[in-house]
Write a structure and sequence with these properties.
four-stranded antiparallel beta sheet; alpha/beta; about 300 residues; Rossmann fold; elongated; six-stranded mixed beta sheet; 14 strands; 11 helices
């Protein structure tokens, strides 16, 4: 079942097409990656999904019916990249206030807040003010506030920003736990290694348009280039063949690319005929970062992304 369906969404600002006829579906319980360079339209999409913006054209279907921002927002948790915490307010009071805005009773909210604060080792923070927290501590607090009311749809924009590896792993494990319990997570980030590790399915947008949509595995297979890594002790300079090209040679390791209509069996036969033992033989699939750069190569946004 799809928790969210975007149907031909369009959003224009003056002459700029921020979102230009984008459609995709998100399955319930999945961890979904929304990717794209700066200015691609990601934030505009997220703001339409949360009811902050209304689309100029198209429909949003939430949980099987047309999205109603007034009534459906209680089922959504949104953690924007630009943090929205009250700096002068005490942490415990702020968490309690925001939980009640999402429809939780005071007693239920208090119980859940204490439970999350213990889990994240935040018990001593109750009377601290947000302005006294580090960026990482603020990040943990915002995550707790986002998921406190157990929303059906959780939107996380750069959730690991400012976190050390220990706390980043803590948040990552909670994302997996929430998905296993039935929540759906939309995950937006510039860190491709995190996307590969966490997400089931991704959509890549650029200049307001969708340019890629699929599972991580299917997308990597779609862009593979017949590159293989072999474990073998040999001198690459002696390997003259039309079957493959040696891309990189390291001690006991070769990176090759198949040529023409060659197959993996042709490669294995070549090494057997040369009396060269092969210890390992694996296909090398492109990273999401490589695919991203290939698809948006040449744009200023792509060059900026490549430096991240």
């Amino acid at each position: 079942m799809n928790i969210l369906e975007l149907q031909n969404l369009k959003k224009y600002f003056s002459t700029q097409k921020a979102v230009d006829d984008i459609s995709f579906n998100i399955e319930q319980g999945s961890i979904f990656g929304l990717l794209g360079p700066n200015g691609a339209g990601k934030t505009t999409l997220l703001r339409m999904i949360t009811g902050i913006f209304y689309p100029d054209e198209g429909n949003i279907i939430f949980n099987g019916r047309k999205f109603d921002p007034i009534n459906d927002i209680r089922y959504i948790g949104y953690m924007p990249e630009e943090r929205g915490l009250y700096k002068k307010m005490k942490i415990g009071e702020q968490a309690l206030y925001l939980a009640q805005l999402k429809g939780m009773s005071k007693s239920e909210a208090m119980h859940k807040i204490k439970e999350w604060f213990v889990r994240f080792e935040m018990e001593s923070w109750w009377n601290k003010k947000v302005e006294d927290l580090s960026k990482g501590m603020s990040q943990k607090l915002q995550f707790v506030i986002t998921v406190l009311h157990e929303p059906k749809l959780i939107i996380l924009d750069e959730p690991f920003s400012g976190l050390d590896p220990v706390n980043a792993n803590l948040i990552k494990e909670e994302i997996f736990n929430l998905a296993q319990k039935g929540s759906t997570v939309i995950f937006s980030t510039h860190r491709m290694e995190q996307v590969e590790e966490i997400c089931d399915h991704i959509v890549l947008v650029n200049k307001g348009q969708k340019i890629l949509d699929g599972t991580i595995t299917d997308i990597k297979n779609q862009f593979k280039e017949n590159i293989f890594q072999l474990g073998a002790q040999t001198n690459a300079h002696n390997l003259m063949t039309y079957i493959f090209e040696v891309i990189k040679h390291q001690p006991e390791k070769l990176l090759i690319k198949l040529q023409h209509d060659s197959t993996t069996n042709d490669v294995l036969k070549f090494f057997i005929d040369q009396n060269i033992a092969i210890n390992s033989f694996n296909e090398v699939l492109p990273s999401l970062n490589d695919i991203f750069i290939k698809l948006v190569e040449g744009t200023p946004e792509a060059r900026q992304f490549q430096k991240v």
